[in-house]
Amino acid sequence: MKVTYFGHSCFLVTAGGKNILFDPFITPNELAKDIDVDQIQADYIFLSHAHYDHITDVVRIAKNTGAMVLGNFEIYNWLLKSGIENSFPINPGGKKELEFGSVKCVVAQHSSSFSDGSYGGIACGFVLTTPDGNFYYSGDTALTNDMAIIPKFTKLDFAVFPIGDGLTMGIEEAVEASKIVGVAKILGVHYDTFGFIVMDHQKATQSFNEAGLQLYLPAIGSTIAL
């Protein structure tokens, strides 16, 4: 599978013949200033929770591309009010078959609210199964034993974990999460964007290597194969 990183927790996976985008937060991110958000092609967009650093560009991209947007029920209602009719509600426990394969919504341990302070529903992660491979995006989360359920149903090829600490897991917890879900390849996200989540890249890579794992920290705008 090809993965393009757009900074913070925004990335795009090409799998099953479709472009699948996650948590679009690009235009306010100074680190992603060279990304032209209007050039991003998406068939599906997944939103892990309602915090502004995960949904800021979703309406713009959805209107540009016609992509189907999936998120929890509260986000779904917000999307409808924002003029995005091609949307679908999915909460933890829910599964849906889509053109690229299937998605299972799972629990994330994190808060969730819209920029105006209104309730944003439960935070989520997603497990995607495709003909090209399977992966787990945890969304913003703490380390949780709920992750042990995932490999009981899906054999994963890689996982996407937040590693910036403070508001989510840090390096140590993400290493343990990788072991729990049974992956050796990890895309790290949710780091460096703000001062309180700036990360030591060398330490992160070393910690994963010492555990027999491979951490990917691609440059913003670059595409890698996983």
Automatic annotation (TrEMBL):
The keyword Hydrolase applies. Residues 7-190 form the Metallo-beta-lactamase domain. GO terms for molecular function: hydrolase activity. Keywords: Hydrolase. Gene3D superfamilies: Ribonuclease Z/Hydroxyacylglutathione hydrolase-like. SUPFAM superfamilies: Metallo-hydrolase/oxidoreductase (SSF56281). The keyword Hydrolase applies. This is L-ascorbate metabolism protein UlaG (Beta-lactamase superfamily). It comes from Flavobacterium circumlabens.
